[in-house]
Amino acid sequence: MKNGCCNDAGDSLVSIKVLGSGCKSCHELYENTKEAVKNAGLSVEVEYITDLEKVMGYGVMSMPGLVVNEKVVSMGKVLKVADVEKLLPIKR
């Protein structure tokens, strides 16, 4: 058994969130993330969070930020679709 939260889902994908202020870079990461999820054949909705209080709750100080299963995996960069795909916990 893995150590972690009682809701630890192992390798399964539970949630994906893009954190941002609504700027062009944040929108671009959101679109790239949705494309990566689609390419991976996942049926997960990508959330786009612009509420700065929620964003700061993740400790993200430079946007955009990418959160996978409640873990910040990227901040301050607009990732390409292929880069987002590498961060998704899917079986390869």
List the helices and strands and how they pair.
Layout: E1 16-19, H1 24-39, E2 46-49, H2 52-57, E3 65-68, E4 71-75, H3 81-87
Parallel strand pairs: 1-2
Antiparallel strand pairs: 1-3, 3-4
Give an account of the 3D structure.
- With 92 residues, the protein is of the alpha+beta class.
- Helices cover 32% and strands 18% of the residues.
- It is built from three helices and four strands; from the N terminus they run βαβαββα.
- Strands 2-1-3-4 form a four-stranded mixed beta sheet.
- α1 crosses α3 (81-87).
- It is globular and about 30 Å long.
- The relative contact order is 0.25.
On the 0 to 100 scale, the average pLDDT is: 86
Spans of 5+ residues with little confidence (pLDDT < 50)?
Answer: 1-10
Proportion of β residues? 15-25%
Strand order of the largest sheet: 2-1-3-4
Largest sheet, if any? 4 strands, mixed
Based on Cα principal axes, name the global outline. Answer: globular
Number of helices: 3
Number of E-type strands? 4
- Alpha-beta content class: alpha+beta
How far the N terminus sits from the C terminus, by CA atoms, comes to: 22 Å
Computed Rg: 13 Å
Describe the structure concisely for a colleague.
With 92 residues, this protein is α+β, with helices and mostly antiparallel strands.
Which features would summarize this protein structure in a list?
alpha+beta, four-stranded mixed beta sheet, 92 residues, 32% helix, single chain, 3 helices, disordered N terminus, globular
